[in-house]
Design a protein that fits this description.
Strand 2 and strand 3 form a beta hairpin. The protein is mostly helical and 388 residues long. Helix 5 runs antiparallel to helix 10, helix 6 packs parallel to helix 7 and helix 9 crosses helix 16. Helix content is 53%, strand content 3%. The termini are far apart. It folds into two domains: 227 residues, Citrate Synthase, domain 1; 97 residues, Cytochrome P450-Terp, domain 2 (Cytochrome p450-Terp, domain 2, Orthogonal Bundle), CATH 1.10.230.10. Bound molecules: acetyl coenzyme *A.
Amino acid sequence: MARSTGNPRSKEVARGLEGVIESDSSITLLDGASNKLYYRGYDVTELARHSTFEDVAELLWTGELPTLSQRNNLLHRLASMRKCPPGLRTFLPQIPRDMAPLDALRTAMSALSPHDAPSPGTDGAAQREMAERLTSLAPTLITDLVRLGKGMAPLDPDPSLSHSEDFLRRLTGSIRSQEENRVFESVLVLHADHEMNTSTFAARVAASTSADMVSGVTSAIATLKGPLHGGAGEQVMEMVESIGKPEDADRFIRAKLERRERIMGFGHRVYRGEDPRATVLRELSRERAERTGDSRIHDILTEVERSVRKHRGLFPNVDLYSGSIYHSLGISRELHGSIFAAARMPGWTAHIMEEYADLRLICPQARYVGRPPRQLPEDRTGVVAGSR
Ligand code: ACO
């Protein structure tokens, strides 16, 4: 492929890399013009209704939905990898209890040995096995850390349950109903990948240096944290608590917009209208509100949505309604980002493997706008390094 050798000063700056296409990818299509999202060609809203998390993981990793026996094999493999590795069992209690859950997950994840983690030279089977291990382990790390933080012993994984069922059991402390499990699994499916978003890009940047898969995933978790990305969901729930009741939503939003503050859970770099995941999540949030008989949060969010649409013309993104669903399942808002990370593990690892398969160092440039080259002042030229 021809390489550009032009003078970087003459190039236009693409702030936030907006509109820049860094690579080809055959994993996920984000069609911003028609507000659609497809994993390997399948509409994500269909997958959320009809597929298991294992189906979607296999789809993202291989390009095809599994047969029934492949699905069962993956279900058993993921279940068999859930136990916390012995080295981490002793490390997790040393992570400060007051660390935010996503920070603790990032710390724990980076403590997984990178020595046996695959990098580009490793064969595809080893890469795939590590992708499964990381996907299987993320819920264990999250739920063990939560319980340790509360001074409780971690719950052993239950290999008779599926990935999402056992994750929800360990998050909430009990096996949940079929309906609750189905809702939670749909949420995980909706978060499993999202083309070249910021955390996936971070994973791919690390992978492009030939770093191992653990490093790639750790970079992604660190990048997910910010409130402009995966941290928005927790802030949506904080906003809901500040609003208090639906009739106060419009006043709250107007005041925020007048102060030129951003409303979390709205807006997107690529979608021109509503994020298709938000459409499904709104519906699931409404269903949960009806089923539990507690619609306060859902009703506040509906009013927030109406107000933001009216005053700013912005549409909801994936982070607006997910917290309402987690709340209805008894999951605290601090875990929002960590659940997002666990759900995104198949996507991040699929992208890392795609990067490994066609490696090119991702190394952009900056347009220098600082001082022009100049001489050191005379009174500094006599100083010998280390003489102070
Ligand atoms: N609230 C208020 N104004 C907004 C919002 C918002 N949520 N989103 C965008 N805008 C405004 C900006 O203030 C800006 O206005 P201006 O031109 O008058 O200054 C304009 O829309 C364009 O905003 P940018 O930040 O340039 O657009 P960008 O494509 O970078 O924004 C982003 C995308 C970061 C998601 C933005 O919409 C935002 O901050 N949303 C709130 C945070 C959020 O919900 N993040 C989760 C996104 S989904 C995910 O990552 C999982």
